[in-house]
Design brief:
The chain folds into 2 domains: 9-191, Rossmann fold (3-Layer(aba) Sandwich); 194-327, Rossmann fold, CATH 3.40.50.300. 40% of the residues lie in helices and 16% in strands. The chain has helices at residues 26-39, 76-86, 96-106, 108-115, 131-146, 173-180, 207-219, 229-236, 244-247, 265-280, 306-327; strands at residues 48-50, 56-58, 65-70, 91-95, 120-124, 150-155, 183-188, 224-228, 253-259, 285-289.
Length: 328
């Protein structure tokens, strides 16, 4: 599990130079410069500056972590992967859920032993959905930072607000504050780059056309995962989310029939985690039934997981558009 902690293949070649800052949002260019300094690509600003009467003022101490906070689609994962590629030494890159799964599989002590001595731990989509995760990640990062490891993370939520709307965050304020103290937080503003050139809903493929697409893909030698929406949702409940990446290995097209609204939060969150892996692998999606961006019902978009669902909607629109473009 540890050796698999590397950036998704779509970010194999991610570099600071290939990130395209939106000139309307200066915080994006500032985040690139901060990431370069953190990774050691660019020298830090002068360690001190002359103040009144020529005395040298000390620069503020650099924290061991950098935290990229911003909405979905502003390129946080690209920047995180750029930091990972540029940072020297032994390093690991994984989603928040992959690190918590690692602790669950190896045990806390063995997970610490496996990660200690690394120069960098990169954590994508840092989220605290329950008190147990709060305690585990706070303790884990504390031990790693104390041993000299740097930490880079992304999230849609500032570190001092992690957990809000999901559990009694106030009861765990000490742990959350401890995590926040590790990071220099950079706010990245902007619009979702996936939707700059597209709008509307996720593309819907008519049922009869879906069968044809699948047959054509198989005839072209592609590997197709073809299931009903219900079959997929039910199967995801039998697999730990940390293993979803294995479900999409070597898949060239995901085809889903009879898509419908989800009202069960657990099913919806598992589907979100699965789509994250599908998107990371850049697998196009063809689906019949309800447009995939409309599946989160029962007021889910107004709850504590709103940002998760909106990120998933963005990725579903992009993934169905990718399939539509490929079939034209």
């Amino acid at each position: 599990m540890v050796k698999d902690l590397v950036p998704p293949r779509q970010f194999d070649g991610a570099q600071f130079s290939t990130y395209r800052p939106d000139p309307e949002y200066p915080s994006q260019a500032a985040a690139v410069e901060a990431g370069e300094r953190f990774a050691g690509v660019k020298a830090a600003a002068n360690s001190g500056s002359k103040g009144l009467f020529g005395f040298l003022k000390k620069a503020p101490p650099v924290k061991p972590g950098i935290y990229l906070d911003g909405g979905f689609g502003v390129g946080k994962t690209h920047l995180l992967a750029s930091i990972w590629h540029a940072h020297p030494g032994r390093k690991y890159f994984g989603t928040f859920i992959e690190y918590t799964a690692l602790v669950g599989a190896l045990g806390y002590a063995e997970a610490v032993r496996s990660l200690k001595g690394t120069s960098l731990i990169a954590i994508d989509e840092f989220e605290l959905d329950d008190p147990g995760d709060t305690m585990v990640m706070s303790r884990l990062l504390g031990e790693l930072v104390d041993s000299g490891t740097s930490v880079a993370a992304t999230s849609n939520t500032p570190p001092n607000a992690l957990g809000e709307g999901r559990f009694a965050a106030s009861d765990f304020l000490r742990e959350i504050t401890k995590l926040a103290g590790v990071f220099d937080t950079l706010r990245i503003d902007g619009t979702d780059y996936r939707r700059r050139d597209m709008s509307g809903h996720a593309a819907v493929t008519p049922a009869e056309r879906l069968d044809v697409l699948v047959d054509e893909a198989v005839a072209d030698g592609k590997s197709v995962a073809y299931d009903s929406f219900d079959e997929l949702v039910q199967h995801l409940a039998t697999v730990h989310p940390s293993k979803y990446v294995r479900l999409v290995e070597n898949v060239d097209l995901l085809a889903l029939r009879d898509v419908h609204e989800l009202t069960d939060q657990a099913e919806a969150l598992r589907f979100v985690a699965f789509i994250d892996r599908v998107y990371d692998a850049q697998i196009p999606i063809a689906a019949s039934g309800l447009a995939l961006d409309q599946i989160f019902g029962g007021g889910m978009l107004d709850g504590g997981y709103r940002k998760k669902y909106l990120r998933c909607v963005s990725r579903l629109i992009a993934s169905t558009a990718q399939e539509q473009a490929a079939s034209v």
